[in-house]
Amino acid sequence: MVQAFITLNDRANRIVNILKAKYGLKDKSQAIELALDYVEQNLLEPELRPEYIKKIKKIEKSGKYTKFSSLQQLRDEIEHA
Asked: pLDDT of 14-51, one tens digit each?
């Protein structure tokens, strides 16, 4: 576990306190972790998530993917599936 000393402005501090109270968390660090989890799940690009990389590697290993030579070929596959 990494410890960090951070400075929050009044607005950010209020938000952390609201998260802490709303979700019944023990301390502000848990509230910050909750907020960062939300950011990771909703704002980061999927290719940056470790679980996305694992999923792609699993698909590559199993060979359960189809190569398309054109966008039209992909559209045809989707529309007729």
From this structure: 999 999 999 999 999 999 999 999 998 888 776 667 77
- Note the pTM of the prediction, 2 decimals: 0.56
CA 78 to centroid of chain Cα atoms:
26
Half-sphere exposure of 28 (CA within 13 A, CB side): 12
Residue with tokens 């950011």: 39
- At CB < 8 A and 24+ separation, what contacts does 28-33 make? none
Copy the structure tokens of residue 6.
């951070």
Domain boundaries, the chain: 10-79
